[in-house]
Amino acid sequence: SLAYSGKLMGYAGTAKSDPKLAPFVRMFFEMNSLVTRNHSMGLPHRLLRILCGSEDSHRVLAASIQGEFQNLFLRITADLLMRSGAGDQVEGIVLTGGVALNVLTNQLVHDTLVAKEGDVSTTLPRGIHRS
To answer: What's the whole-model pTM score?
Structure first.
């Protein structure tokens, strides 16, 4: 429901992410992308322990989830752009659904993937090159 995602985004801005949590968050995202909507996988134990902890630990987890979500979303979007052959012809990217409400991800996509006026070299993310 929207209340949970709003709370997650709100908490994400109040703490720094923990790089040690990134692999567990990534695993959760990847595991759940492989199963149907009705058969979600459980949380990794490390994340479950954090959810049973203090509010401060919830904030760190939220920041870690936000950071890992942004990384995943950026990789997927960059891959789709490269596969489409659009290359330097991209003037913008339209996001819909719940992702469109994630302001931090929107800004990251804009800053990283969308060409800035007069600078088409920023169309592809840093570190990704056409073969």
So the answer is: 0.72
